[in-house]
Amino acid sequence: xxxxxxxxxxxxxxxxxYWMERLGWIGNFDAAVEGRLPxxxxxREFSDSDVYKLLEAMAxxxxxxxxxxxxxxxxxxxxxxxxxxxxxxxxxxxFGRPGQAPRYSDLEWGHELYCYGHLMQAxxxxxxxxxEDELVRIARRAADHVCEVFGEGGIESVxxxxxxxxxxxxxxxxxxxxxxxxxxxxFLERRGTQVLEDIEFGRQYFQDDVTVRDAEVLRGHAxxxxxxxxxxxxxxxxxxxxxxxxxAERQMRRTLARRTYITGGMGSHHxxxxxxxxxxxxxxxxxxxxxxxxxxxxxxxxLLLATGDSFFxxxxxxxxxxxxxxxxxxxxxxxxxxNTLHRSAPGVVAAADEVSPRAAASLRAPxxxxxxxxxxxxxxxxxxxxxxxxxxGQAVYLAQYVAGEVSAETEGGEVILDVDTSYPSEGVIxxxxxxxxxxxxxxxxxxxxxxxxATVQVDGEASSADPGWARIARxxxxxxxxxxxxxxxxxxxxxxxxxxxxxxxVAFERGPVVLCVERLASEEFAVDDLRVAGEPRDTVDGxxxxxxxxxxHDAEWPFGAAVGASPSVEASVFEVPLIPYHRWGNRxxxxxxxxxxxx
Amino acid sequence: xxxxxxxxxxxxxxxxxYWMERLGWIGNFDAAVEGRLPxxxxxREFSDSDVYKLLEAMAxxxxxxxxxxxxxxxxxxxxxxxxxxxxxxxxxxxFGRPGQAPRYSDLEWGHELYCYGHLMQAxxxxxxxxxEDELVRIARRAADHVCEVFGEGGIESVxxxxxxxxxxxxxxxxxxxxxxxxxxxxFLERRGTQVLEDIEFGRQYFQDDVTVRDAEVLRGHAxxxxxxxxxxxxxxxxxxxxxxxxxAERQMRRTLARRTYITGGMGSHHxxxxxxxxxxxxxxxxxxxxxxxxxxxxxxxxLLLATGDSFFxxxxxxxxxxxxxxxxxxxxxxxxxxNTLHRSAPGVVAAADEVSPRAAASLRAPxxxxxxxxxxxxxxxxxxxxxxxxxxGQAVYLAQYVAGEVSAETEGGEVILDVDTSYPSEGVIxxxxxxxxxxxxxxxxxxxxxxxxATVQVDGEASSADPGWARIARxxxxxxxxxxxxxxxxxxxxxxxxxxxxxxxVAFERGPVVLCVERLASEEFAVDDLRVAGEPRDTVDGxxxxxxxxxxHDAEWPFGAAVGASPSVEASVFEVPLIPYHRWGNRxxxxxxxxxxxx
Lengths: 599, 599
Hints:
- The structure is a homodimer.
- By secondary structure, the first copy, chain A, is α+β, with helices and mostly antiparallel strands.
- Chain A has 13 helices and 22 strands.
């Protein structure tokens, strides 16, 4: 995390800024003021939202550490946006001017409310880290406008892309504006009642098929579905609505049990960027959009807060290490939009200086025609601090483990911990109390579901800790040290037998990190030429896997009585490295598998 | 076949006619004449082509058997089209009028040349079965116009959807117009040199990534790819171009060995309706568009004629029985657009009176917003007679087996055979010579690749016949009878181990027909609850499969060390029917699998 946050601060945020300035997505706001729209409009209909996501990333990053250049840049962009907002609060560079489609004339695809949602999320980030400023005022005017236009007696519809729902609630909660929450409730209750037009992908694409209260599982466009669920959980908490919360929890639990990749990735279909049927999780062409991983984190983190079940924190961690961390390249200048679990032929390196027209670029690309993911990664990474710890007033719960200082408010006062760890490289995490209220601090540590055999050491005495929450038996005072040790041996995982694409295959995990076999195009044997020939072995250089090479023989027709027996398997066994899945694709064209065939 | 042809004559052709009249696709031609375009334009940009495909179906059907009502209807539609053709031969209801985009301004997506292609194919059908008429003259003017506009010195580009290439060659061959062939050559040589714009799906979508001469395998949009290959084979034959022929053969052989479903279906991706990578053939959501099956038949039949290899006739048969025959419902009033090999949840019955917005309707639908498949099935079924026999001047080759009269020209004179069979229900096919030249007739019979153990009986004496061509040893005269017996026991097939989605699964075939397990929503056990528990057994009511039921237990997270062992398998074995895949989905919502898990 720390590395990813540094990379974000040093490179990723500036990279997004560079591309959106270069492509004129930020310039759209200037063009609006100068009367050059629609002629000079650049980017897709939702490009404003990427500018807002960049501002959100900047706001969180500025909250993490001061940076006067970044502060200046942030303010300059906000000033350019401010000039575009109309007197009634409307703000969008795509609609409403002469030559443009009228405001709210295309709720299915226009993304106007979606853009406001990201504007409000940016404002939330700013208000939380620096207080109310120009951006917060812009967002407030937009929120007021939305309540005016889409409130009772107004347009009785919703946006084709959920996002304003959680944003209105978070923004309203922060500002104490109950009517924003009320507006979100209207949106959440309308969706699913077929208020949007039917489309080729079906109404489930934008979750307008069944209400969020009645749905059994996430379906349709995975980003839309997870964002919507995040809003539903927020509303359930605001309204103390147990029925809605349990509907949301039921949907996420079934989605995790039946529609999620081992990486935490969501979405099996390229077409419609959507969830597949239950257990339809083929590795090849897994869509697993980076943004859907982020949506999953948003929803799972809220379920963690709402239910207290550490299982949801496990899922946040899984998606962070295996989806969000997979997207950016090691240099922070290119991104995966989709995250396949199997590449059978080496991919193509994207040009460093060109926009990729395709979301499904073979390797990471610097920017996309639809470029939601880079800015989403930037804002998520900058805000990671928010996922680390929580408090129920009494105890401090550590949900995620990252080196650094953690502070949390309890009823007794502030608790500050110094966390020392190289997790997930190693499994030892030590906590030293540097500040505690006079009555001491209660500490509760998450033991991940995979971490059977974990131990907690307090006062030099170790005791075993089962997966779930491990509560430290005594109250801690300044200077106390607790050490959590998670078992980091490489694990072999199998899949539910209903997943056809994973029969007779195994995957490997180490701590929260999913591993993979990657073979550079220049190396002997592609991944599909290898078969698992034993248990993985941990070495000082990382885990290795014993494999055998196979030679496939092409039949003129690949189906028949004798075909299954065709490959020749070599007798000799050799070892190949198992690398973190999130690090694949950084060394040039390669083949890669997360799930490896056995025998 | 005979049943399908009767259904086509009685229902399918009229069904297509009804829907295109109702939706105004035929009416677009009237609207053009009456100056009501673009306001009254209905359907997608390529809807003209479906009217031409309907005419082609009518023309073949009229050639098969006279029908004065159908003849009248055919002529009426042709008359309505004739009025729209402009003085220079241009003919399209979507482009070129005030308020419409200019002619040829969108070659990537406009489909103007594609529509001409289907116009010419309809004209070929008419000219072959009835001689030159108004439709043939319209097509001739269009072809002249295309040569004018896209010839040397004209627009140096191609159509985003291949089709005019084989059409120009077949039409030119028929009329003796070499310049149509020359124009097709220009199109075939241009494509692959990046003459079209790059698009989100990549230039391979319309095969503009690599020339047809250099390509190694079919890729991109499967219908486009197969139609283009058909044109390339036609050109190779016209030009006596062995290099081009071998390029085409190489591509088809690799496509059959690595990118084709056991049904003969082509295309793994819903997105882009395209081929996947080698061995990327998941059963769930197999796209296998009906039209791609037809394109495969077009290309394989041409390869059969060009190379004489009966392997390609096997592929024609496979796609006919398992893709084309699967599309229409038993009543001929609804169609599959895509042909999945696995349905894990019962599908939704499409409304009988509504256009389905989605190609991937769960069950067959009466009509689609993009409705290429119903008219394509109709024209293919009406023309099936053309696939049955061929002659090399000396011998008559029987490539497909269907009851009826077969006539073929040889250098000695006409050969007529009476074919008596209920193939593929049974494996006995008997041929009686009813007319033969004075020197007798040479007969060669195709023994399909799956038919090891076949026998041929001549003069009451049986001898074994290996897969491939079985040449009857002596010349036959009138009254001679030959009986081919193909083994029809149900076969168990496995898949190449590189196909991840098919590991540890088997499929069942009987003769050329792929079988499946179908479970109605009302029956106990869905297909995913069954495991193969023995060999299939042939009974008088058809083949049955011994299975065991399994009970799956949902884990909160479906991956882990112990997960793979989760389902409980019941001890008792029972039998379920194996039905022809092409008959599934005719009895209401159901689950279905072609590939069944073992153990």
